[in-house]
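Below is how a single chain appears once it has passed through the pipeline. First comes the sequence as given, then the structure the pipeline wrote out for it. We keep one example in the README because the format questions we get most often are answered faster by looking than by reading.
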Amino acid sequence: MPSALIIDGHPNAESLTASIAQRYATGYGDARLLTLRDLDFDPHMRFGYRQRMSLEPDLADAKQAMQEAKTIIIATPLWWGSVPALLKGFFDRALLPQQEYRYTSLGLPQGLLRGRRGRMFLLADTPWYAAPVLGLPASAHVAKSTMKLCGVRPFRVHRLLGVQGADEARIARWLVNAERTGASDARRDADRPKTHAIAAEAASSSVVATS
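Resulting structure:
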């Protein structure tokens, strides 16, 4: 299996986000590019966490790819302070209690994807000088509340700001840097063994006390 999993969370294949994901994959080499727009799955948690939904084949395959990867990369735009509904729905359906994370007897989260590193390429029209005022909440959402909670550490965020007003030269630099980052990560990962997740308990479809 490929050593890196790149998750492209943009609904449009012609987006700059998609190009960044592709260039990282090119630089890494031994990578799988998972384009969520091409997957067949229901992004809605129909029962919340009170009842498990059956996993569609594409979703089961994506979860297996996360388990087997050394590095997990997320490429996404910033929309209304968050990520596209497609990516959020993927997180909701694919990252499950007792499989990608669990809680200890003290109520503390324990990530079951430990041993994996990660990055996020976050693209936003927000200019760099406005970011401290407007904030980039998607950064904390994906990095801290999602990936790190599941045990993916370290998880670095690359903020590509001012996309709307970026000229061709700046876009070209972003693409080159994404490819170089992929190549650098590939050299790093070649020197370390794969670390499998903690053996998770069998998934349960029973009703649980949660929101």
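The CA atoms of residues 50 and 209 lie 7 Å apart.

See the next section for the split statistics.
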